[in-house]
Amino acid sequence: MCSLSKRRLLYQTQVILPLALFACLVCTCGSGWAQAGTLDPRFANHGIFKTNFANCCGGVSAVALQSDGKILVGGEVTPSRTVGSILLLNTNGTIDTAFGSGGMVTVSLGSIGANIGGLAVQTDGKIVASVSGIFVARGEFVRFDPNGSVDTSFGTNGFVTISGLFPTGPVVLQPDGKILVAGKEDLSGLLARLDSNGHLDSSFGSGGIAVVLEPASQLVLLSNGQLLVSSASSPFQGVTRYNANGSVDRTFGSLGQAASVDAPVTLVAQSNGAIVAAGVSVTGVAAPTIFTGNPTGFGLTRFLSAGGIDTTFGTKGGVITAFPTFNFGGVAAIAFQTNGDIVAAGQAGLANQNQNSSSFALARYLSSGQLDSTFGSGGRVTHTFGSTNVAFIAAMAIQIDGKIVVAGPTGDSMGNIAVARYLAQ
Question: What pTM does this model have?
Fold first, then answer.
């Protein structure tokens, strides 16, 4: 009897404990676990901050993170005329009303419409922004103190105007405090380097300005001081590498340039020197469309550090991703997560004879170029703000905890913008 009781107790222990553990795991999953790619419920309103303009409309061009995790969103607003704007959100997705005026600073270019196209945060918390005219080729650069007031020690009373250079967006900070900015003059691309006070650095290019093949859609600083520039403009679509002094590095690719996806609007560099460029590519997926060819989707290409195609990535070096039920799409921003996964963000939409609409869209890839099946639905995430809205992600940043912050217009009639945060794991 004693032996039989022991056997029964052992059986009960072996069965009941695993069942209890399973029940605990189910409970935990139901209350505290969410799949990567879902909206962060602790951010703003169920994961999304959305403006509530009454007599205004806005746009987004840039996102940057402060060292304390607060989120800067650069773009434009139009209360009576269009001005460049920077909005600051707290880490929980609420407006930081201590910044600027009620959480926002604005910059005008006189009677010219303006847009904040690039943002960068210095180690001391100061904010460098590029300001471009919307209707004419005019622009400038401005630096703000952390509270949103103009830093008058920068340039002339806080502003820098470079004759002949119209900012195209990217602003990059060097470890030594110098500031790299991108722009153009007519059809020529330009790069300029400023010292920490906002003066042109004469050791770069010619008098601080270097002519590049095409206007930069993205600018990346490598650890050795060299620069990578992506261009989405014909005829020099691709990635070009420049030396630290602004000259073309002709050892890269073919005389300095590597051909890329159809329109490489953005790029990112890995620690081993590999480069992923992204934009729009034609897919092989058939769908009802007003386009004469195949529908379009996310297009990624990876290059080796010397500029050749990395054929181990995706399919012979490239990845093309379509979104189910949508017949067009494209990447606006790309970033690495700490584990090497690649996050691409932009839009996925539907175009037909009656109307166009689009949604926020993200895709996450393993380092091999394959879609990460643990993210969203088969590696893809979309968020629609209305069946007739033309919404899209214009900018993205990855938080230190891996969460993904994106921003863009919602496409509604009031011209609102949205900032969304997605879980990474």
Answer: 0.89
